[in-house]
Amino acid sequence: MSFGSSKRPAFKPTPYGHTRQRRGIPRWLVLLISGIVLGAGGVVFLQRSYGPPRLTAEQSEQLRMDLNSANIEKQQLQTQAKQLRTEVEQARQALAEQTRTLDQLREDHTAMQSGVAELIAAIPPDPRGTSPGIRAADMIVRDNLLAYSALLIQDLPEGATEVPAFDGEVKLVAAGQYRSGQTVYVDIATLPLHMMRYTQVKGETELPKGFRARQVTIQITAAGADKIVSTRTIRVVAGK
Q1: Do the beta carbons of residue 219 and residue 160 sit within 8 Å?
Q2: Strands 212-222 and 166-177
Q3: Cα angle at 223 between 221 and 227, to 5 degrees?
Q4: Residue 156: pLDDT over 90
Q5: Burial class (CB within 10 angstroms; exposed 0-12, middle 13-18, buried 19+) of 233
Q6: Mean pLDDT over each residue of the chain, to the nearest integer
Q7: For the chain, how big is the Rg over CA atoms in Å?
Q8: Per-residue pLDDT at 1 exceeds 50
Q9: pLDDT class for 144, splitting at 50, 70, 90?
């Protein structure tokens, strides 16, 4: 009796079966990790090679202190700037006030000049008709001192509003007597003169001891000339 073959049929998986196989790390994960590692290494390399050096603890502390000092200095500068702005504003206000005052003074000066012009026009002219003219004068003796005062005015040229400056000198010559009764003339004062439209010459001078002045002659001469330009004789009065 013969039996069939003793070989077992080979096993073939069916579509419904499965087998277990060991799987490796996916390629894409390997590439991702490699890229991360290379990128981090590149960053470290660039920082060490080309980036700014890292500060030590002491350097960091010094930097912090410098920053605090800079902040304090900035605050001080801001305070100073605010103070300067305040001072500038105060100066601007003061300047504006001074400008207003100056404008008022100019207006007052113009009004005063107008009033002076009217007053000059009302003063009687020098009897001799000279210019500068000696329009008015007083000679007063008190305790052997002669107090003198004279108003000198230049005439305006026809059609003019101003006169040229006049330079020269004023000389006072007193006529009187000593106790002996002799009449003499005594030069008692010589004064420099610089005037425009008008000026007042005034002061005091001591008379010679024992001399009694009766009258004083005012003489005006121009600078560099000996010729008398104007003269007028005023009687001396005794003061109280």
Answers
A1: no
A2: antiparallel
A3: 40
A4: no
A5: middle
A6: 83
A7: 57
A8: no
A9: confident
SS3 content of the chain, % helix, strand, coil (to 5): 35, 30, 30
Decide if 100 is inside a domain.
Answer: no
| The total number of structural domains that make up the chain | 1
Q: Tell me what percent of the residues of the chain surpass a pLDDT of 70.
A: 82
What percentage of the chain has pLDDT greater than the value 90? 42
Does any domain span residue 44? no
End-to-end Cα distance, the chain: 193
Query: Whole domain around residue 216: which residue ranges?
Result: 133-238
For the domain that residue 210 is a member of, what is the CATH number? 2.60.40
In a domain, 172, yes or no: yes
Burial of 236 (0-12, 13-18, 19+ CB in 10 A): buried
In a domain, residue 76? The reply is no
Q: Is the pLDDT at 3 greater than 50, yes or no? A: no
Q: Nearest-CA neighbor of 192 among 211, 210, 169, 221?
A: 169
Distance of alpha carbon 165 from alpha carbon 225, whole angstroms:
16
